[in-house]
Design brief:
single chain, 216 residues, mainly alpha, Cytochrome Bc1 Complex, Chain D, domain 2, 2 domains, 12 helices, 52% helix, 0% strand, binds heme C
């Protein structure tokens, strides 16, 4: 009995000690101001080194690589700092972000936010499961509708809710699957992990298609 309690205590204590925050970024008024005041023109220069992967105008030509154009500056800033802090793991982006200062990250974030979002052609196919999830969610599984956070045109919302409209399909599938499996865990309060856990592969595929062709 005593031994059991001891083991239980040890397990509980170590989880508390290991409970690292999912991000070091907290949206205080100072932090918001800092990002807002990023220098777009410095950002434009810095962005030359991103173009090979994310496209000349922040619109990626590679299905597995995300577009950055038109994204909320606060979201882009948080992702860059999360990569730099190894809160979001991707070898390429961890090394890119490690070379950026906080100021560089704010400058880049403001630059990409100023660019027009990708507009993609609609592809025919059954998107009924996605439409249901976006507009109504799934009451049985406690999935809130995506639009409640990401906006009815997939435009995102302050501070850390990304725009999804026009996002690359393969990247979208990859990142939702990574929330689902817990590989990506930089979402504060586990907001996306709790939702993605309840989506099927088919749901994720349709949602990726739905948002890819949505125009803000
Ligand atoms: C060699 C290719 C490459 C280069 C160069 C590169 N990136 Fe990336 N970037 C990627 C890939 C691949 C991902 C997706 C990583 C993942 O799944 O976490 C990504 C993800 C991102 C994300 C997350 C987007 C989102 O929607 O969550 C941001 C922000 C980003 N990159 C910004 C930049 C910036 C700014 C630069 C230039 C300073 C840059 N990247 C340079 C390949 C690259
Ligand atoms: C409670 C609010 C909330 C709801 C509802 C929600 N999301 Fe999110 N979503 C977020 C937040 C916050 C993030 C950014 C988390 C982070 O910093 O990594 C996010 C991130 C994402 C990303 C990553 C975008 C990128 O560029 O990497 C995708 C894809 C996504 N959500 C899809 C969905 C879909 C599909 C639904 C509906 C099934 C949904 N979300 C419902 C809050 C929400």
């Amino acid at each position: 009995m005593m031994k059991r309690i001891l083991i239980l205590l040890l397990v509980t204590c170590s989880t508390i000690v290991n409970a690292e925050p999912s991000s070091n970024i907290a949206w205080t008024p100072d932090m918001l101001n800092f990002v807002k005041q990023g220098d777009m023109f410095k950002g434009k220069e810095l962005a030359e080194s991103c173009a090979g992967c994310h496209g000349e105008q922040g619109i990626s030509q590679i299905p597995e690589y995300p577009s950055l154009a038109g994204q909320l500056a606060t979201y882009t800033y948080k992702q860059l700092r999360d990569y730099a802090d190894n809160k979001r793991i991707h070898m390429l982006m961890n090394s890119v972000a490690a070379g950026l200062s906080e100021q560089d990250s704010a400058d880049l974030a403001v630059w990409f936010a100023s660019l027009p979002t990708a507009k993609n052609k609609a592809v025919k196919g059954d998107l009924s499961a996605a439409e249901q999830l976006v507009e109504k969610g799934n009451g049985k599984k406690i999935v809130p509708p995506c639009f409640a956070c990401h906006g009815s045109d997939g435009e995102g919302a302050k501070q850390d809710i990304p725009a999804l409209a026009g996002q690359q399909t393969e990247y979208f599938i990859k990142t939702l699957t990574e929330y689902k499996t817990g590989v990506r865990k930089n979402d504060v309060y586990s907001r996306m992990r709790l939702i993605a856990e309840q989506l099927s592969e088919e749901d994720i595929r349709q949602l990726a298609q739905y948002y890819n062709q949505l125009q803000e």
